Amino acid sequence: MPLHYLTLPVTPFQQNCSLLWCDETRDAALIDPGGELPKLLSAVKAQDLSLKAIWLTHAHIDHAGGAGQLAREQGLPIIGPHPGDQFWIDGLAKQSQMFGFPAAESFTPTRWLADGDTVEIGRQTLSVRHCPGHTPGHVVFHSAAIQRAFVGDVLFAGSIGRTDFPGGDHATLIRSITERLWPMGDETVFIPGHGPESSFGQERRSNPYVRGT
Ligand SMILES: [Zn+2]
Ligand SMILES: [Zn+2]
Q1: Whole-model pTM?
Q2: Which end of the chain has fewer surrounding CB within 10 Å, N or C?
Q3: Residue closest to 111 by CA, chosen among 169, 181, 52
Q4: Rounded average pLDDT over 158-164
Q5: Ion ligand 2 — residues with CB < 5 Å
Q6: Is residue 148 part of a domain?
Q7: pLDDT over 70 percentage in the chain
Q8: Domain count, the chain
Q9: In contact, 209 and 159? CB cutoff 8 Å
Q10: How far is the CA of 176 from the centre of ligand 1 (A)?
């Protein structure tokens, strides 16, 4: 496999931060470092990786809460999310207070993402799909090479993302799933922001929110 990853649940919300690396170069990215930075950095060290970037699916506190501090301390670029999540980034301090998280450092993404962009780690390239609905600026990272998608809070095993937050929209979320995730193929395994992995085919067969779509 040209790419490897480890899933590291962080924060009281057990958010699935993914440590993703290129097998050839051992360059790594952390997807959604929501918190518990010492735990994430020791995983990087244990795998003997060179951490190059932070990638964000969206700017909810459990996904983006550790990004500012990690970027500052390690000198890393923050890639993503889509500019639709600017208001969630602006509201990180308020989100920390609301959920009793440690105060999140604010940040400005080094690079905003748009639908159809690509991101690179080592010699591997992943494609970016804009998947609004849970948040307006939510993005998903897809590797065709290993048939994996890092989908944040768009889709879960047996469920879908909440749409009752500001900027959320149910119909938009369903369109993101059916028009932007399903074309990645039924065999594609996805790593959700919370809970266990599943495949798109499995969800199309059995997920009550998107069954038969
Ligand atoms: Zn979220
Ligand atoms: Zn989440």
Answers
A1: 0.98
A2: N
A3: 52
A4: 98
A5: 62, 153, 193
A6: yes
A7: 100
A8: 1
A9: yes
A10: 15
